[in-house]
Amino acid sequence: MFDKILIANRGEIALRVLRACKELGIATVAVHSTADADAMHVRLADESVCIGPPPSKDSYLNVPALLAACEITGADAVHPGYGFLSENARFAEILADHNLQFIGPKAEHIRLMGDKIEAKKTAKRLGIPVVPGSDGAVVSDDEAMAIAKAIGFPVLVKAAAGGGGRGMKVAQTPEDLAIALSTAATEAKSAFGDASVYLEKYLQKPRHIEIQVLGDGRGGAIHLGERDCSLQRRHQKVWEEGPSPALDAAQRKKIGLTVAKAMQELKYLGVGTVEFLYEDGEFYFIEMNTRIQVEHPVTEMITDIDLVLEQIRIAAGGDLPMTQDEVAIIGHSIECRVNAENPVTFRPSPGRIQQYHPPGGLGVRIDSAVYQGYVIPPYYDSLVGKLIVHGKTRAECLMRLRRALDEMVVEGVETTLPLFRALVREPAIIDGDYHIHWLEQYLAGQAAGG
Ligand code: ADP
Question: Which of 4, 77, 100, 114 lies 20 to 30 A from 151 at CA?
Fold first, then answer.
């Protein structure tokens, strides 16, 4: 096992990793920008190192500063959290060159899945169903038109290097295609430095369903069921739950085992998520995330497995915590991402939290790094915290969520709490009857006064 882990992240995920380290008896090193000197992860870590000024590129993405921090503190492993350097294969290799363990998958798998075209080819080869579309990057407008006509409009133009919903454009009709291609390519070039784009059939009302996997890197891999992340705004997840209200046990088992088998073949190491769109009973692979995800607590609540702790154990050469047959899905869990944003315009609302009262009680969990008096800096994401609830049934979970949301107090900054309080009372949400466009349609209806 590792002696000392450097946590190359901030906010709630830095704290989440720190908690797992404490339970494993591993010493922790926090790193922080000058804007985060008062952050909770810095206060709770055994040691801390300032790695640069506020902009992420000068601090949390500053590889030489992170290496120096490892050197100074004698850390033997680095946990990247999510975002920042978590899916940077080069970073994993640089750490290895310095005799430091990257707590994550093999660099080759990060690289493979980071290229969405290669990822899709690999998924197909491993027997995972994919969205119909171009076989690789499209090189000309004519080629794109021929493929689009073959799969049928509407089509979605996606960036090969995509992430965070950027570089994605819908072409409803053949007339829209040229402009969708050029805007997606331009956006991809500026966001990722890679203009290559590919085509996919645009699914009309799918759900976003993702499978959590855990692999030992030696050919052992299990799946831990699914999360339904269909409630999105601008392709960003807002509310996640598991199990999906749309799947039954047989469907879960079928897709789960398909994914687990693919991960065994790949000899995948650590935690990962295979993301699908799901429509009319069919699954379509969209991408794989080779890291711990924001919404991982949903799976932890329904499987009683500490994913971050297992991630660390496995990175240190440990075995899988259980066999597939031993994985049991217990009850239901929902996560709400409470952001410091105006609940109507979604404009970020950084600033000082004047009053803070997290909800509690049975089945209620808060993953957050804020405290009363904490100042949310303007430089990073606007997550205040994740409210995660668990219940024996979905109905009990919703009841508990309603109660917990009503109890939660965050004052001084605007938050998205009012949105969740409304959502948890919406008939479509209560029925579990929603798809990836539902939330945007709902918000448009609210804005129109409907
Ligand atoms: P990113 O890596 O940018 O997050 P993804 O491929 O994971 O991109 O897609 C993000 C979201 O975009 C999905 O959850 C879904 O809402 C939407 N999306 C992606 N592909 C399609 C598609 N073929 N048809 C309809 N919506 C899609």
Answer: 114
The residue whose CA is least distant from atom 21 of ligand 1 is 202
Residues paired with residue 133 on neighbouring β-strands, in sequence order = 200
In this predicted model, what pLDDT tens digit does every residue of 340-381 receive, in sequence order? 999 999 999 999 999 999 999 999 999 999 999 999 999 999
Strand 332-339 to strand 364-368: parallel, antiparallel, or no bridges (unpaired)? unpaired
Q: How many CA atoms lie within 13 A of 403 on its CB side?
A: 15
Could you state, in order of their start, the residue ranges of all structural domains in the chain? Answer: 4-103, 132-201, 207-447
> Please, which residues have CB within 8 angstroms of residue 124's CB and are 6 or more apart in sequence?
130, 285
Residue nearest to atom 12 of ligand 1 (CA): 235
Fold (CATH) for 132-201: Dna Ligase; domain 1 (3.30.1490)
CATH number among 3.30.365.10, 3.40.50.1360, 3.30.470.20, 1.10.10.60, domain 207-447: 3.30.470.20
160, 165, 167, 170 alpha-carbon torsion, rounded to 10° = 100
The answer, yes or no, to whether any atom of ligand 1 lies below 6 A from the CB of 164, is yes
Give the model confidence (pLDDT) of 87-145 as tens digits.
999 999 999 999 999 999 999 999 999 999 999 999 999 999 999 999 999 999 999 99
Residue 4's identity, in one-letter code, is: K
Q: Which atom of ligand 1 is nearest to the CA of 167?
A: 3
Tokens of 259: 């994914």
CB 131 near ligand 1, within 6 Å: yes
**Could you tell me if the CB of 22 is within 6 A of ligand 1?**
no
Atom 17, ligand 1: residue with shortest CA distance: 235
To the query of whether residue 111 is one of the catalytic residues in this protein, the response is no
CA 286–ligand 1 middle distance (angstroms): 7
* Positions in the chain whose pLDDT score sits under 70: 450
Token pair 């053949």: residue: 174
C-alpha–C-alpha distance, residues 192 and 41, integer Å: 29
Given 16, 207, 252, 291, which residue is catalytic? 291
Q: Render 162-192 in DSSP notation, one character per residue.
A: EETTEEEEEE-SHHHHHHHHHHHHHHHHHHH
**pTM of model > 0.70:** yes
Give CA–CA dist 389/375, Å, rounded: 26
3-state secondary structure of 414: coil
State which fold the 4-103 domain adopts: Rossmann fold (3.40.50)
Strands 27-33 and 4-7: parallel
Closest residue by Cα to residue 220 from 264, 256, 261, 177: 264
